[in-house]
Amino acid sequence: MGRRALITGAAGKLGGVMASTLAELGANLVLVDRPGSNFDSIIEELKVHWSMTPDIIECDLENENNRLSLIDEVRADHRGLNILINNAAFVGSSELQGWVAPFEEQTLETWRRAVEVNLTAAFHLSQAFMPTLSKAEGGNIVNIGSIYGEYGPDWRLYEGTNMGNPAAYAASKGGLLQFTRWLATSVAPRVRINAISPGGIFRDQPEAFVARYVERTPLARMATEDDFRGIIAYLASDLSGYVTGQNIRINGGWGEW
Description:
The chain is of the alpha/beta class. The protein has helices at residues 13-24, 40-50, 64-76, 108-135, 167-187, 207-215, 229-236; strands at 4-8, 28-33, 55-58, 83-86, 140-144, 192-198, 247-250.
């Protein structure tokens, strides 16, 4: 491939799979995640299996000044950029006040934080790198959405657990999908823009949740990170050279029943 890709949220499990997939295809990588993130395992994998060392940039995407520093650093090395993957997401936790809570108790603070990371940061980075991507061979952007950017939550899945489904997550992911469509028609034919909407990925959720989720999924399981290797290779490469403005669902058939 010989192209350069920037992946946000790269220290997470899904980001790591994206990185190793593109490294296998011969891409050079810029891996971005929050300050203090542990990149050790993905750096080791890339060195051992693909004999490449990625560029690592720590950046809190919730902070505009941090984003500006990231943009300046990537531009300053004059090595260009062919692929931008907006993978980072604000997912919060059950301990975060005003996040996993009844609608009446969800706070403006957590709403703003989720929108800033999940939507505003994607807008900001896409806009900032558009001139570079426009000049690059095979310039493209891949946004990572969610089934909850399209579907409302089935609250029965969460009964008896401390899990939840905040409005801000769904709204920000829905906005990201529409931003994908808007941007695709606005910058064509210079740069392709597509999205992936993952279904639930298995990460040791409570057994009751997993059983309920599997029951309403046609392929009868939750996703694994490896399920996303093929779609990342497809969208980030010339294999999808005539594909733009699309949201591809990797969800085991969720929502088809």
